[in-house]
Specification:
The protein contains one helix and 26 strands. The chain is mainly β and 477 residues long. The strands form five sheets. It has a nine-stranded antiparallel β-sheet. A six-stranded antiparallel β-sheet has the order 1-2-23-22-21-20, with no helix packed on it. The protein has a four-stranded antiparallel β-sheet with strand order 3-26-25-24, with no helix packed on it. A hairpin with a 6-residue loop joins strand 21 and strand 22. The chain is globular.
Length: 477
């Protein structure tokens, strides 16, 4: 079933917010939904890392129709298809340009262009240590909470003519926040960093947590961390901005009870989130409190509406992390399982439910703002196809890339325009998840994090930021 068949969307309207500055995908990246099949095939290992300047190893005959062929261990961190290479740009504990050590728990990330050959990455750090256990990344006057060790770092990276990236500069750009999981880029040149916990003073913090923070991409030093309280206090995961309206869509990842909402924030002034706005939660018309976690049909379009959240910053979130969720759900909003990655493209918002579906292995949803319609694009039937999708991104060529997050072997998987899913990369280290995948604006280089340990009680696994390049033109990515 082709997505654009029976698609209720009216014709697109002219963009109201320029999205070119953040390299948003210029082509629709999901065209068909149907049977998604894929297999993981590993070729014999190759020793050593194929770093910049070394010849690539290729095997053109191994290319599959869906993807780029079998995966080969081209280095100690990752396995890739033949012809692809990578380099390690940043490692946890590495000395940065500002004299600080690279923080732990690399997570969500986005690319922003600086010059023709230099891009800027803004990267989250999902530090989950208890109050005061991790030193804050910034001085107390800039920290939101001086007891919190999470935040963001910024990396300036030069991309060679062949796609090989080189780190030029890195520094802390936000500090004093807690469990900075994902977030997303904005069309006006900023990164929205999301806290994935609503803990507060009863747990020992100096201030309440569970907010979104904005990081200016053009800032060359950390600035004061200011919570955007009107955007809600809950276990935030990711955001996506509708570049035509400036509306911000937010996912909630509260895995304890498998209850999450999908939210929309309408700012008073598009592009100026600090001025406040209206937070709403999605509901399905005619189906109050519908459970979207199971018994859903791929390809079935649903009419939706948005229910206002009376108090987006409730005091009771100190004790009830789902306080915002229950406001919407009580009035009839829809319940998802664990909403994670979120991306705006093709005049639509695509988002993942990591443990949604009858097999609890993941769903991919598509929401069309202009027609207020929602459709289930894909539901994973087995771990061999897709195992708990998390971050989502799209290449400038229009191909979708999905990062997995599970307790076993994790992959980045690509999705073809014909609806076939395939493994693009395997985490050889097996230290947590792939996260923060994002392409350079020209599509030559993919940046991604391999997340290490989140807290000090489980040491040993480090976090890495990698740059990957190769024969992208031979596939959909």
């Amino acid at each position: 079933m082709t997505l654009h068949e029976d698609d209720p969307r009216p014709a697109s309207t002219p963009a109201q917010v320029d999205n070119a500055s953040v390299g948003v995908g210029r082509r629709g990246f999901v065209r068909k939904a149907g049977f998604y099949a894929g297999a993981t095939v590993l070729a014999p290992s190759l020793s050593g890392l194929l770093a910049c300047g070394q010849p690539s190893w290729t095997n053109r005959q191994s290319r599959s129709v869906a993807g780029y062929g079998p995966l080969v261990e081209v280095g100690p961190e990752i396995a890739l298809p033949a012809g692809f290479r990578y380099t390690v740009l940043s490692v946890e504990g590495q000395l940065m340009s500002d004299g600080a050590l690279t923080p732990r728990a690399h997570d969500g990330m986005a690319v922003f262009p600086r010059t023709d050959r230099v891009i800027r990455l803004v990267r989250n750090h999902e530090d989950s240590n208890l109050p005061g256990r991790t030193p804050p990344l910034v001085s107390p006057d800039l920290a939101y909470d001086p007891l919190a060790g999470g935040g963001t770092t910024t990396l300036d990276v030069r991309i060679g003519s062949d796609g090989c990236p080189t780190l030029e500069r890195d520094f802390v750009s936000l500090g004093g926040t807690f469990i900075n999981c994902a977030g997303g880029p904005t069309p006006w040149g900023s990164w929205l960093s999301c806290e994935e916990s609503a803990q507060g003073t009863p747990r020992g913090w100096t201030v309440p947590h569970g907010y979104i923070f904005e990081v200016r991409v053009d800032a060359d030093a950390p600035e004061k961390a200011v919570p955007l309280r009107a955007m809600g206090r809950f276990a935030h995961e990711a955001i996506a901005v509708d570049s035509r309206t400036g509306f911000v869509y937010e996912t909630e990842d509260f895995d304890r009870h498998r209850r999450s909402g999908f939210y929309r924030f309408q700012p008073e002034t598009p592009g100026v989130l600090s001025e406040g706005g209206l937070l709403e939660m999605m509901a399905v018309k005619g189906r109050p409190q519908v459970d979207m976690r199971s018994n859903q049909r791929v390809g079935e379009w649903l009419d939706v509406e948005w229910l206002p959240i009376r108090d987006p910053d409730p005091v009771e979130a100190d004790h009830e992390p789902s306080a915002v969720f229950f406001q919407g759900y009580t009035n009839g909003a829809a319940r998802f399982s664990r909403l994670e990655g979120c991306w705006f493209d093709d005049d639509s918002v695509y988002f993942h439910d990591s443990t949604g579906g009858d097999a609890e292995l993941g769903q991919v949803w598509r929401y069309v703002p202009e027609s207020e319609a929602l459709v289930l694009v894909f539901e994973s039937p087995s771990v061999d196809v897709l195992n708990r999708p998390d971050n989502i991104t799209v290449s400038p060529r229009g191909g979708i890339l999905i990062c997995e997050d599970n307790s076993g072997v994790t992959y980045m998987r690509g999705l073809t325009p014909d609806g076939e899913i395939f493994p693009f990369a395997q985490n050889v280290l097996n230290n947590r998840e792939f996260a923060g995948a994002c392409f350079s604006p020209d599509g030559q280089t993919l940046f991604v994090n391999i997340q290490g340990d989140l807290d000090l009680d489980d040491p040993g696994n480090l976090s890495y930021t990698l740059g990957i390049w190769g024969p992208w033109e031979e596939g959909v990515l």
